[in-house]
């Protein structure tokens, strides 16, 4: 099977550009390996060399076990390219060997308040945060979406969901502080939350709740029946 020279492909079809736009999960093993190789030879493109390597070792497990000498024996793969491939595979092996991080599980509004209260209660500006959750309601990350004024925080759905999509979040819990110390939701808080819920439904990312943090107090819009 013949593979094209990467520079001759339309920009939107090149592995590097696709990885930037669509993420690494959209690329095949051959695409990823071609990015590692960077260049081909006078007789074979980087894609063709990548395909040759995959074909020679059959699967990624066998490739990871290959030595630099075995890789260098492939025509067009010298010691430099062989070392590049081995270094990338070694990084992947080390990542896989790391212990699984124990992530916080969110079961109720109190869990959110416990996680965020000390960070938010004494701030003099409204900080709008999102807890990004996986399918088991474990926290993937805590993201600051915007920092507002004394009594308002501007949040655009695009900024919120761009981050959630990039982190492959299954659900979101919104949170922000009231510098006044009173966690009573405003009309704007409720309207914004409903808008973000609607956008999430379209995208396929559930907005589970909105927690407002005051001075050692908090309000859950969901628990209050406001959303």
TrEMBL record:
Gene Ontology biological-process annotations: proteolysis
Entry's Gene Ontology molecular function annotations: metal ion binding; metallopeptidase activity
Keyword Cytoplasm applies: no
Compositionally biased residues, Basic and acidic residues: 9-21
Pfam families: RadC, UPF0758_N
Keyword Hydrolase assigned: yes
Domain called MPN: residue spans: 105-227
Span list, region Disordered: 1-21
Keywords: Hydrolase, Metal-binding, Metalloprotease, Protease, Zinc
Family assignment from sequence similarity: Belongs to the UPF0758 family.
Matches recorded under NCBIfam families: PRK00024.1, radc
Protein name (database record): DNA repair protein RadC
Organism encoding this protein: Desulfotomaculum nigrificans (strain DSM 14880 / VKM B-2319 / CO-1-SRB)
């Amino acid at each position: 099977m013949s593979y094209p020279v990467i520079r001759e492909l339309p920009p939107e079809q090149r592995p590097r550009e696709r990885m930037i736009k669509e993420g690494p999960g959209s690329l095949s093993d051959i695409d990823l390996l071609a990015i590692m190789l960077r260049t081909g030879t006078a007789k074979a493109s980087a894609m063709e060399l990548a395909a040759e390597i995959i074909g020679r070792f059959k699967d990624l497990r066998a490739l990871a076990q290959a030595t630099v000498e075995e890789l260098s024996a492939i025509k067009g793969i010298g010691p430099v390219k062989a070392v590049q491939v081995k270094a990338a595979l070694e990084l992947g092996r080390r990542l896989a060997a790391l212990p699984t991080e124990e992530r916080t599980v969110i079961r109720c509004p109190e869990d959110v308040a416990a996680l965020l209260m000390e960070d938010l209660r004494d701030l003099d500006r409204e900080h709008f945060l999102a807890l990004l959750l996986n399918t088991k309601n474990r926290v993937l990350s805590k993201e600051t979406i915007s920092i507002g004024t004394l009594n308002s925080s501007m949040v655009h759905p695009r900024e919120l969901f761009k981050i959630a999509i990039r982190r492959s979040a299954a659900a979101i819990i919104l949170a922000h502080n009231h510098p006044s110390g009173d966690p009573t939701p405003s009309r704007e808080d409720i309207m914004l939350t409903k808008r973000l819920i609607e956008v999430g439904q379209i995208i396929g990312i559930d907005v589970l709740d909105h927690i407002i943090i005051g001075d050692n107090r908090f309000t859950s819009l969901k628990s209050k029946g406001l959303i």
